[in-house]
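Marked as duplicate of an earlier ticket. Keeping the data here for the record.
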Amino acid sequence: MHNYIWASVLMSVGGMLFGVDTGIIGPVTAMPGFADSFGTFSPTIHGLIVSSILLPAAFTSFFAGHLADKVGRLNAIMMGATIFGVGAALEAGAISLAMFIPGRALAGIGEGFFLSTVVVYICEICPPERRGPVASLVQLLTTLGIPTGYFICYGSVNIKSSYSWRLPFILQATLATALACTCPFLPASPRWLIDRGHPSQAGPAMDRLQLDLQQFHEELQSAGPPTGGQNKPEVRQCNQRLLWVFNKENRKQAFLGMFLMGAMQFSGIDAVLYYAPTVFEQASLSSTQSSFLASGVTGIVIFVSTIPASFLSDKWGRRTSSLWGAVTMAFCMILIGSLYASGSVQPHEGAARWVVIVMIYLFTISYSVTWSVGFKLYVSEIQPPQTRAAASSLAQSANWVSNFIVALITPIFLDYSSFGAYYLFGVSIVLTGLVCLVYMPESRGKSLQTIHQEFDESLHTKLIGALRRRRNKWTRKGVMVEEKGPKRLESSDSDISELSKREEAKKVSS
């Protein structure tokens, strides 16, 4: 196995760290021991506790790309993992919500720095033919972290002390420390080294990663001159690449990436993951352990379905999988909402409650096979090399802002309406599917340096071009008709004049 694969696996632990947090926070806040420590709280406070990690993550991710460009991908990941570990330790030792919530906020700051940078690092060290499956390891380990978090809570809920909810955060802090300690032992991204004007260091880094030097050289040739070193003083004058993301050449990819990453959360996936115990209790799995077990099974289903999706990500197109995912997920959400709205779901009886549970599992499978793997990889792939880190960070920021909104409103929705949240998510999925149909060009199997050239050939661009050609065609026809009309009229007048002369000549001769 090549060393770049091992490096990718080790950095993908960042995805597992994110997944563990997603898996533990819902069950932890539903534990009796957590209520004993902090008291009972309203649905609004519940949503605030869960979502307090997300806005800080969204804020710092705005600057994560610039940080990763300036200090290097691995240093940015190490810094983020360290901050995350300190925040998790504060959560584990909290004696009040006034300590717990700032701990989550600090963890969010670290998460914003390392999560999107992990994907960028892996995409940059992988050759095109391996990029899809290897970069999908981040999502694969994220989905492994989710059931891991659920089952840690399933095991710790029976501890007769506050360690029932503290233990998951202790383990989370330990994992973050391990990720931070790994970074100094891995080679830097060769693309980043060349981009920052250090080509002499790129060769040894490629040797350590066991990359094909000839293939790498050809990709760099197609990319043109370095964009972050001495050849781009205008970028340095701005002191950030965030502004460069939105210039005419790059903004299409940036806006599409931000939309897709935000739309992932409005599909409702994190509403299911964060509040899985509540969702299953609403579907009449009333006991705490039963709802925790069902939540853990959800995590296992997501992990198992992500495995083939990760390894087959280059076998089917990103666009095709996104469209099929939209159809399946929208069907699940709208059906669940309709069952609740019609009053068909009854506690302890009837088939409708089991249909709801099956649809939740089908929804998570569809999401894991399509959007979860495809969108995160696609958003990093379509960005031009010079703005990839910054644009990926902005997209991740959009994801966290959307995640914050969903995490905050879901318990309120579920408290006041059993079906409103499901209809909201279903309509959001339909709208996202339409955007994918019109604006999303294929990126599978193409080099990072050529994808942004193909991006201009999206279906939307082709449709606009076809409409313009059709309009020009009809315009030309109209001009031709106008030009031919007077000529026909002139011809007819001359014929009449000629006939009149002949008639007059006949009369004179007679």
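See parent ticket for discussion. The first helix runs from residue 3 to 11.
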